[in-house]
Amino acid sequence: MPSTAGWTTHDIPDQSGRTAVVTGANSGIGLVTARELARRGARVLLACRSEERGRGAEELVRREVPGADVEFAPLDLADLSSVRRFAESYSPGTLDLLVNNAGVMALPYGRTADGFETQFGINHLGHFALTGLLAGRLLKTPGARVVTVSSGMHALANVDMGDLNSERRYRRWVAYGRSKTANLLFTHELARRLGAAGSDVVAAAAHPGYAATNLQTAGARLEGRRTAERLADLGNRVLAQSAEAGALPTLYAATAPGVRPDTFTGPRLVGWRGAPAPSRRAKWTLNDVAGERLWAASEQLTGVTYDDLGG
Question: In percent, how much of the chain has pLDDT > 70?
Fold first, then answer.
């Protein structure tokens, strides 16, 4: 991995002529990522579930980056029909960068429109399907990248292949950890398949450390747990780094020269804050057999196959 010491948004290479899709670009790390890519000249599609928040993000980026080429595009990762509509309506012939950023964290038990446990369904399966449906565009774009945002919290749990939807027992933080492990296993297996196919598309992963976003408070807010929500908000204000700082590992993985497949970039200081650097990952996220098994299960569950990559 190239040197990352002191790496900031000023080090992002020129992105003119490149097209990027950023999921969950209406707030937090996704919004910062989209804004900085646009600032460097990329055409950016803000793939968001809420039209109101997506349009608001589009207007905000245009105010902060005069002349920015950004556009809201509806995408609900909790509904595979929405994922398919997004892919079918994607008009550019090529795709230089797909940032699988959107996610949910530690929510009460719920299911997506297709019946998947919410965290696994949104954080992993939605992005698995989206990447597969856009794979043809990525493969025809020289130097394309897929960056999937995981979390240091992946270390909480390995995936349970016998209970992917947490039907036997649901523990919100364990389910979150499993979904973030799935992100890393997906990146590992995607990188392997791209390499076997002779493609120069780079699949990499990143995580923001502890960054102040609405992820921390969403679960407590949904359940009306006011004390937990206030504590999470306090942590954001006192302990967390900013969303701008939290986006740096994603932006590094997406744009820095020499990023290698299946790398995992996070904040330098104990994986919590600071400039981008190689991040530790649980050994189970590098297991070839587990990656293949999760891939096969994901194809079966979503109905999306990566035919151009083979096995």
Answer: 86
